[in-house]
Each structure stands twice: as C-alpha cells, then as structure tokens.
Amino acid sequence: MDNSKRFDLVGKVALVTGASSGLGVHFARTLVSAGAAVAIAARRAERLASLQQEIRSAGGKAAAVDLDVQSGKSIAQALDAAEQALGPIDIVVNNAGISIVKPALEMPETDWDAVVNTNLRGAWLVAQTAAKRWVAAKRPGVIVNIASILGLRTIGQVAPYNASKAGLIHLTRALAMEWARHDIRINAVCPGYIETEMNSDFWKTPGGQRLIERIPQRRIGRPEHLDGALLLLASEAGSFMTGSVVTVDGGHTVNSL
Asked: Which CATH superfamily is domain 9-249 in?
C-alpha cells in the first residue's frame, strides 16, 4: 500500500458522539478532511445544523442525528438514521462526555450518576450497539474512545470524571481482547490539557499558567494536536493496534509519575 494513503478514510463512514461542541466538532472535521463521511451525533441536535452545513458546503458528506448515549433505544435509532443517510458505519468515535466540579464529600448521587452514566456507561452502550451490528453483518469495525489523562492520574474536585475515564481505559482493553476475533479494533486516546473556546480564558489566568508550567513542554495543547492519534487509530495505519492507549499531553503524565 502507498504509505501516503495509509491514513486515508476515503469510502469510510464514521459516527462521532458529542459532536455538538468542543472536541467533537473538531474530530468530525478531521475525519471529513481524511475523506470519511461523518454522522455527527448529540442530544442537542439543533446545534449540529451549522456543522453539517459547513461540512457539506466544503464538499464533504455529513448527517446530523439525535443521540442520547444514556439510552440504548436512542443509540439504536441514531445508528439506524446514520446508516440510512450515509451507509454502514465503519468507525465510531466515543467522544460524548461531561464533568461536574465539586468536592467528593459534597458530590450528590445524581451528579455522580450523570457523569459516570455519560462517560462510561454511554461509551459502553454505543460500542456494544455498533459491535453487535458489525458481528451480525460480518464486517470489521473500529472504535476510538476519547478518554483523558485523568484516567491515568488524578486531580481534585472531579472524582466521578477521574473514575469514569479510568474505567473507560480499562473497558477499552477488555473489549479489545474480546472482540479482536471479530476484526473489531478498539483503542483510546488520552488527551492532556487542550485549549478550546470554552476554556481559553482560563489558561491566561495565574492558575492556568501554573498548570501549564507543570507540563514538560511548557505549553497547552490544541485540538489539532490530537489529529495524528485519531487518524492513526481510525485508519489502516493502525491496523495492528487494538487495546492501545495513546497519550497526547505534552509529557504531562510522565511528569506526574
């Protein structure tokens, strides 16, 4: 194979959860730029319209679908809608996630459930629903779970987020082991601190600057720094990778050991 084509996703169909904002929007754009048709999925479906139009106006293929990762019925309906619009799904990017910032002693049960049910249970349900279809159709599949360096190390005030991302990393490995026989690859990306529109002001504050100083590269990450890992795991270039956890953090976790 021509090495220049190993990262191509031409002819592939990808589903990105949590695609209404932040990294989900960026991941959708990245997959489209590599040639994939993309189903952009989120609960806030009305926020997907502008991204869908942007992709189509640039000559790409995109379909917006309603998806609540906490509902198995919603997931099944979303996959049905995506496949009807774009064809069988080849790649799933499990990106949907939330965080609630509170001390562990003050974290109510409802907040814990909201975070873990979205970040871990939701990723599991999406992965299982997609995998059942691939197995039934005897098709290969690829899942990229978006975890976090907080699944590898911890910070305060976000106990359920830490736990859910650690669980997602281990779930990635467990499913990779079970589903390799079905030609389904499952890997995870662990982003470090990434600057987005929502948090860009924080990194300019004294507190934000102190956090940046703890990163060996002494800089904050940008969404495009995740592109290489995403495309590696989603494409033929990563065909011998499953159960892998790729950390993209400027050396942050190394400095935390």
From this structure: NAD(P)-binding Rossmann-like Domain (3.40.50.720)
Which residues are tagged catalytic?
Answer: 161
**pLDDT average, residue stretch 114-132:** 98
**φ, ψ for residue 244, nearest 5 deg:** -85, 150
The beta strand positions in 104-181, using DSSP E, are 141-146
Do 145 and 189 meet the contact criterion of CB atoms below 8 Å apart?
A: yes
**Token pair in block for residue 12:** 């592939």
Q: How far apart are CA 56 and CA 193, in angstroms?
A: 31
Amino acid at 241: M
**Structural domain boundaries in the chain:** 9-249
Q: Report the DSSP beta bridge partners of residue 94.
A: 145
Q: Helices 109-116 & 159-179, crossing angle to 10 degrees? A: 30
Give Rg (Cα) of the chain: 18
Residue 194 pairs with which residues in a beta bridge? 221
Q: What is the pLDDT of residues 204-218, one digit of tens each?
A: 999 889 989 999 999
How many other C-beta atoms can be found within 10 angstroms of the C-beta atom of residue 155?
12
**β-pair type (184-191, 141-146):** parallel
For the purposes of burial, counting CB atoms within 10 Å of the CB of 111, is it exposed (0-12), middle (13-18) or buried (19 or more)?
middle
